[in-house]
Amino acid sequence: MPRDSHARVVRALAERGYNADREAVTLLAGAEDTAAVIDRVAEAAPEDVLVLSADHVDAVLDPSAVSTDSSTANPSVSRGDTVSDSEDVTDRSPGETGGSPQSRPSARASDRSPDEATGSGSAGERMTVSGEFQSTGIGEYGDFLAVFRDRYERLADHLRGRVTHRPAETIREMSGGGDAGLIGMVADIRSTSNGNWLVELEDTTGRFPCLVTDGELAGEVRTLLHDEVIAVEGQLSDDAGILFVDSLYVPDVPRTNSPSTADRPVRAALVSDVHVGSDQFRADAWEAFADWLHTEAAADVEYLLIAGDMVEGIGVYPGQNEELSIVDIYDQYERFSEHLKSVPGDLEIVMIPGNHDAIRLAEPQPAFDERLRTIMRAHDATISANPSTVTIEGVSVLMYHGVSLDELIAELPDDRASYDRPAETMSQLLRKRHLAPQYGGSTRIAPEAEDHMIVDSVPDVFHAGHVHKLGYHRYNGVLSINSSCWQSQTDFQESVNLEPDVGYAPILDLQTLELTVRQFV
After folding, report:
1. Which of 101, 170, 419, 490 shows a CA-CA span of 20 to 30 A to 442?
2. Exposed e or buried b for every residue in 340-350, given b needs 16+ CB within 10 A?
3. Cα–Cα distance list, 71 to 47, 287, 291, 509 (Å)
């Protein structure tokens, strides 16, 4: 079958008991005599190899090439808890799961239709990723001014329909006692001696004080952070020196928001915080997960989204060196790449960095440099910035590692933000339409020409990690998922009383937006 289609190549390999990564499929499809080359590659492949790589094909096409793939794994699978889109979904903690071992079947790819069997060819039509940027900020005053102006203008656009906005300097010149509306960035929040709240808002013309006396609105004030953009309206005092607030608005996700869905049965696995290189990395759980992806039960899982912290990193927290099994950062990524090879080669993989990865800590985080991209080339994964939006089968997934969740949990009331309810905490970021609202706190923010942390378009799914806790929560049509981790409790986590949820893989049905959670520990 000369110059045959990629799908037929995948089916032919499956008949011989093999899967293959995309590069191998492309090489085979381009061979002069594809059928003959497939037979030769299958005969030459080591006995313990189930996923053929480009190296295996090159070794046949070019005898001087040497095959290096020797990945194997012990199979394991567990049942999952399903979350329906029709449910009133609240933040969840992990449910009990169990399972029985299964062997890895060889017909995973052949169960799909020809157009679906491989990521080659039509992948660009089924998946797009946005978020990459070139860093331009160098820390000068003008850089900070530019990013805050951009934040104000873009978030103000989401609020202009809520109030009749007047600039702060215009309100200052108005007669007392009249109505006024203002869109501003929170410059200061403080309680008064009689239990009210004074919120000072700043726009491009200046600052203006706003007083909140209403008890219900005071509850909303407690959820505000410095530097987020809000709108207020109310009545000016007699001397026009203060605005008594009657209404307060955040950019928020519209209540009428309706998420998009795929037009065919297809699923995605959403994971994060692998932490290869830690002495607490659960390689057994990851390989069990990879084995499950090869089973018939996972035949329609075509996407794998990893939301940061592929490796443990070096010098991230005090005493970390004592908890490392791999002390060289590049060796950590080499090992991560080996584990990534265990998943099926026809998965479309998207990865973004996290705070443990070898990239700048300040957000937004650019994608990995060329050396690390080369190391993590397994299955031709797509590597993007933190945050990024990946649109798969028409479903937009906002991927953010989640460092700012620590700050929200520290600053907001316990009933609004908690490590035990990570996905509900993520919803606070959706309300603010910004992934790192507060500048100068524990979340490092880099000044760029534009604010890449703004949630301009409402996603269908919001995927994060970082806090090592499992949770899912639906807010105004957006499904937020925090996907736990693949690392057992470290001494540092024990010292801060953090008990991680380990080895969970949320599996999202893109056609129904139902969520199934599987555990592999």
Report:
1. 490
2. bbbbbbbbbbb
3. 11, 10, 11, 28
